[in-house]
Amino acid sequence: MKTLLEKKITPDWEKFIDCINRKGTPERVHNIELFLDGEIQNAVCEKFNLLDGFNGDDPYFNEKKQVQIQRFLGYDYVRMGLENMDFVLSFSTTEDTAKRGHNGGRSFIDESKGPITNWMEFDKYPWPDPEKASTRAMEWYEKNLPDDMCIIGSGGFAHPAEHLMWLMGYETICYALYDNRDLVKAIYDKLMKIYIASINIILQFDKVKIIWGSDDMGFKTGTLISPDDLREFVLPSHKKMAEISHEHGKPYLLHSCGNLSDIMDDLINDVHIDAKHSFEDTIEQVTDAKLRYGNEITLLGGIDVDFLCNANEKDIRKRVRKTLEICMPGGGYCLGTGNSVANYIPLESYLIMLDEGRSY
């Protein structure tokens, strides 16, 4: 049996962006992920001895580790945003039962009540300040990232739906959209100022070639709040992020889970996203989305997470190949999971997916 990832890939961020911009069928498969859980990253490093000779006490160990992992796995980029931009939120924690579980358990946002449920809490909330955020990692990547790789600017901004639901609590915002819309609007306006300041700082770095917003707006059969409320309190933020990205000549990608069929026309023709990420078989397979939207936007990922958790090698390779046969022609597709490389996905299954892409 051949060794997984035996065929080597040299990153090429320019061709990666050409693929996203649908400038013809790429010479090879380009890979993309929103993120890899830390446990998966560590397992990859251990399996392939990626950190031999690395100094754990190096102040830039984590940045060097990311470059090593991303290059080895065949990604053309690292993903980075501003640091020290965390929002204070309400969490609950439970045991992580994954084979490679998170230390300290798995955390979830409190769905009923967040830190801002009234005007007094709004006034007292410790909003993060982009002007005081750290660009330490961005500065290191700007100077040290190999020339064949780029930075995807992402994290900490462009989450309006999520931040509204996290800051208020999902139950609370559902009531507030009926009886306290002024408070929802005030939170949204505050978020917009933070996002605009954040993206403008990030885009000062030349190696940032793509902006990636991440904002779960739906569930299995629809949107989490009404399409009209999304059009008022969420989509204008993404439209502004896309507008700023495009002014700088950068594509704007959107990760959003859930059934967004009611707002896909808005996302394509008003927000002007360049690519859509996050696909789940129980909602829509990426191959179907490619046939429906592939002439207008790029489709990203789509190898279903539940499928990867349960399928054997033969079925994974068969599905990857079928997906590439449908989605690769003309460009506008990058291979990846339907969501992210969670710690409960078997490592071998994830590597088989990448391996099949390399041999396509």
Protein architecture, described:
The protein is of the alpha/beta class and about 350 residues long. The protein has a single domain, classed as TIM Barrel (Alpha-Beta Barrel), CATH 3.20.20.210. Helices cover about 45% and strands about 10% of the residues. It is built from 15 helices and nine strands. Strands 1-4-5-6-7-8-9 form a seven-stranded parallel sheet, with helices on both faces. Helix 10 (about 235-245) runs parallel beside helix 11. The longest helix has 22 residues, at about 180-200. The chain is globular and about 60 Å long. The two termini are about 20 Å apart.
Give the helices and strands, then pairings.
Elements: H1 13-20, H2 38-48, H3 61-73, E1 77-80, E2 91-94, E3 106-109, H4 119-124, H5 136-144, E4 150-153, H6 160-168, H7 170-179, H8 181-202, E5 208-214, H9 227-233, H10 235-247, E6 252-255, H11 264-271, E7 275-277, H12 286-293, E8 298-300, H13 305-310, H14 313-327, E9 333-334, H15 347-358
Parallel strand pairs: 1-4, 4-5, 5-6, 6-7, 7-8, 8-9
Antiparallel strand pairs: 2-3
